Amino acid sequence: WQTENGVLLPSLQSALPFLDLHGTPRLEFHQSVFDELREKLLERVSAIALEGKVEERYKKLEDLLEKSFSLVKMPSIQPVVMCVMKHLPKVPEKKLKLVMADKDLYKACAVEVKRQIWQDNQALFGDEVSPLLKQYILEKENILFSNDISVLHNFFSPSPKTRRQGEVVQKLTQMIGKNVKLYDMVLQFLRTLFLRTRNVHYCTLRAELLMSLHDLEISEICTVDPCHKFTWCLDACIREKFVDNKRARELQGFLDGVKKGQEQVLGDLSMILCDPFAINTLALSTIRHLQDLVGQDTLPRESPDLLLLLRMLSLGQGAWDMIDSQVFKEPKMEVELITKFLPMLMSFVVDDHTFNVDQKLPSEEKGPIPYPSTIPEAFTKFLQENRIACEIGLYYILHITKQRNKNAFLRLLPALVETFSDLAFSDIFLHLLTGNLTLLGDEFALEEFCTSLFDGFFLTACSRKENVHRHVLRLLLHLHHKVAPAKLESLQKALEPTKQSGEAVKELYNQLTEKLELRKPSPAEVTETPSMELPLPTVPTPASR
Hints:
30 helices
């Protein structure tokens, strides 16, 4: 039996007793021969998939699959069967169904085979994609609530190319491959989830996924996605954090080029423009344009570049409504936004310039001119009623905070208590604001500044919005040593978590309490009267940390 079933090589028979002398079992020898042969077979299968005429090579592989599939559940043969299926562009339907019905086989098969299963089984594909989408959203939220507060490293710091290297984007790109049907399914999932949750991070993923396929030069998908060139151009703007004139013309060309009967593409374009990274770039460019216009004595309505930025902001901000209503029309721009609101913002810039010049002039008897403290009622009304005005207004406030312009910040802060759809209490704005406030760290020692910021703004929403509670605690964890002790004590009481507070708030509050405990001088140090011979014990001051 051994002779009949062994390896039929005449020269081998005389060599085998050597193995016996070394105490090597025949099983080990046969196993190593088997493994070697399997490796050779796998290499051969991969080679067949690349040689000869297309029909012939696939015919060979199909025959091989037919012969070997019955052994697919044998662990030693399974890799060969899986390899054959991987190289077949179309695995027979019957075999796919058998693989799909067996959990272990499904798990073991290559992604190339899974794609063929998924494209006709949306529910199964959804089950595979869903955990990845949840992970993606969680990653974004973790960055927004990160305890590292910095003006240099924030949510928008990573370049688009770096973001696309993220685990979720890479996995999704691999799952889709060159399969247009799967790509469409993922886009449909993202649209549905965006509609259901209004979470704008799904819009980011929509753009990142397309650009990840673009990086791999997968033309099968890029050429059929009508948003490809628009997204590619916008991606370059996001990288520079500015929309220059040349790219502005290109983007305008894409928007103007939407033909009659193809309006549905506006739904996808609006989703790409609703990506927070796109909104950030458009809003920063708008603020920069407004400053330039002040220097040029030009009104907003006379700047085509500015009007295009507003048009894109408007399209991005209207994404949810457009996809929800299925009415694919560019939202109408409110004239007053251009004729009243933007000139008002420019007047704030002028106020700053005038004040700075006044400070430098030799003071006369009448004394220094105070900084304007009132804000026009119309400004507050715009922030409450107009989404785009609100977005630009918030970015202007971020801009003055970054410039360490305390006067302008305190002047405009009251307008943030009530804004359109509570945008001033959104995570992205608060994440950026807390980062920029670190530049005004020394102002936290002043009672007036803290009262305006905490009592006048943050604490108005803490009880009803847990995310605001978290952002205030993040800020205090970073700047508590700058805040006056009396104020810090009252803030600690005001920010104490309630029974309804989530774990994240409780955890942050505990961290803050621990830090404050460490800073308190020990009772012994405070009460003991030091004797004259000993050096005075040092009591740490609030500013020493």
